[in-house]
Amino acid sequence: xxxxxxxxxxxxASDRPTGRTTDLRTRAGGGPGADxxxxxxxxxxxxxLGAAGCTSGGGPxxxxxxxxxxxPGAPSGTPMPTSPMPTATPxxxxxxxxxxxxxxxxxxxxxxxxxxxxxxxxxxxxxxQGVEAARARVAALGLPPALADQAGPLAPAAPxxxxxxxxxxxxxxxxxxxxxxxxxxxxxxxxDGSVAEGGTTVDVRxxxxxxxxxxxxxxxxxxGPAAASPPAAVARVLAEPxxxxxxxxxxxxxxxxxxxxxxxxMLRLAGPYTLSVSVVRTGHPLxxxxxxxxxxxxxxxxxxxxxxDGMAVVDAATPRQLIASFMRDAAAAGSYNVGGPVVVPGxxxxxxxxxxxxxxCHVGFDH
Length: 367
Known about the structure:
alpha+beta, 7-stranded mixed β-sheet
């Protein structure tokens, strides 16, 4: 019943349509001289009207589907046949190509090894979920299958997933050991067919071996929950189109655990540059790799930039002058510790360069 029909039926009795059955019966049997033929005709009319659904004291039925309707001639209570609903084809998940190290990398196969593992753990075809399937994919790489047990948020319980490695940068590289930070974007299909987009940064630890380096452990990052009232600068950074943030770095900002000095420096550098951030807080080693000295990243006091104005820091074709200019401007924005692939003259330890930072610029703060 539609609302409009209900309005007509709920009015005063004098406004309702009068049942014609009552009217016909009065005329058929009420007047003197009414003969038997008249009465029979009136009764037949009343039966026809009643079969049509017009009853005394009730209005006309509302138009629309009637769940209790039956097929003519079918037994009472038999439902109307319905056409089968078409099955929607799920939208395919993105399938970006696997990230590959460029020719300017130091020890490129170290990064390749880390990326292969993360891709094997963070992406699978329909029905390929579960630890046992992940172990098989890891074993196919010639790596210890038990590494699948350390996948954590990289391998949620979902029937299908795909993954994009945005960049792989060094968290540290020494003669026989390395940390590769694999920055990911991930698409997860839920059992109901919906798709969620997220991502994490994985600290992959490796050691030298023959014929290829091997992975010894991995640490997927888990950013904290969003803060109820993050600093006002967070919204400005997230809305700035000249600052590119991967999923976990954006989650770091929303958590309210990143210092104001980092946020303001990002905004200041976004004036003359477009900066692609790789890591802020989550996913970075707790200590400076190879030392026991705490890193500024987990404290929310540093960020790394892997691309400036769309050009990768690691790429030899990227002008060294552009990188040096960025590093100097980062210091002018308040950083006390700026690292990168080029030597920039400066007092004390303000600027530094080493193999770990040949592929990104580090911008750190002491408060």
